[in-house]
UniProtKB/TrEMBL annotation:
Organism (species): Salegentibacter salinarum
Function as written in the Swiss-Prot or TrEMBL entry: Functions in the N-end rule pathway of protein degradation where it conjugates Leu, Phe and, less efficiently, Met from aminoacyl-tRNAs to the N-termini of proteins containing an N-terminal arginine or lysine.
Gene Ontology cellular-component terms listed: cytoplasm
GO molecular function, one term: leucyl-tRNA--protein transferase activity
EC number(s) stated in the UniProt entry for this protein: 2.3.2.6
SUPFAM superfamilies: Acyl-CoA N-acyltransferases (Nat)
Subcellular location: Cytoplasm
Protein name in UniProt: Leucyl/phenylalanyl-tRNA--protein transferase
Family to which this protein belongs: Belongs to the L/F-transferase family.
Length: 217
């Protein structure tokens, strides 16, 4: 396994192990994060670990035109059950994502260092947020990295305190990104929830083509 020094570059993506782990350590500087996302790499670890960098194969993605919206969700949209905004409360969303405890997860990977770095990415309009409101209360949301030049959005995390709120926000985001010409939404790794929304697994090599990165880069 490759252990990164402070300013050391990532190893070739082909060196990722069977689970997709590429490297350990390094920093969360803005240049490193921007490079990572542009090359199909993302940080994911809990607060008891060093920074872990991943590039899994296969990769879970959603093609916007394949989004599945259930009848029950269509009813919620018909009723306008929630109000959705974009980039109005990035900090509220990422902090709420950090506080949510998830099954099988020890601690949170959204550490204070992650929040600080992604807040900076938000100031550069690279990290984006979706807020879901009910009676002026933030009840759900998600955030991710928008690679506008490549027309790819990389989903990072979502939260909900009211049933279906995060799903409502995600569907709204996908529709918005589709209108903006986004070709692919990176969901990173498989979950049944994502599959129910139409996401699917593709090879890492195919995913990297959307980023215009040679596999051996």
């Amino acid at each position: 396994m490759h252990y990164l020094q402070h300013n050391e570059k990532f190893p070739p993506i082909s060196e990722a192990d069977d689970q997709g782990l590429l490297a350990i350590g390094g920093d969360l500087s803005i240049p490193r994060l921007i490079y990572a996302y542009n090359h199909g790499i993302f940080p994911w670890y809990d607060d008891s670990q060093p920074v872990l960098w991943w590039s899994p194969d296969p990769r879970m993605v959603l093609f916007p035109e394949k989004l599945k919206v259930s009848k029950s969700m269509k009813q919620l949209f018909k009723k306008e059950a929630f109000t959705v905004t974009f980039d109005e409360d990035f900090e509220g969303v990422i902090e709420a994502c950090a506080e949510i405890r998830r099954e099988g997860q020890h601690g949170t990977w959204i550490t204070p260092e992650i929040i600080k770095s992604y807040r900076e990415l938000h100031e550069f309009n690279i990290a984006r947020s979706v807020e879901v409101w009910q009676e002026d209360k933030l009840v759900g949301g998600l955030y991710g990295i928008y690679l506008k030049e490549q027309q790819v959005f990389c989903g990072e995390s979502m939260f909900t305190t009211v049933s279906n709120a995060s799903k409502y926000g995600f569907i709204t985001l996908v529709d918005q990104l589709k209108d903006e010409g986004v070709k692919l939404i990176d969901c990173q790794v498989y979950t049944k929830h994502l599959e129910s929304l139409g996401a699917e697994e593709i090879s890492r090599a195919r995913f990297l083509k959307y980023l215009e990165v040679p596999f051996e880069d």
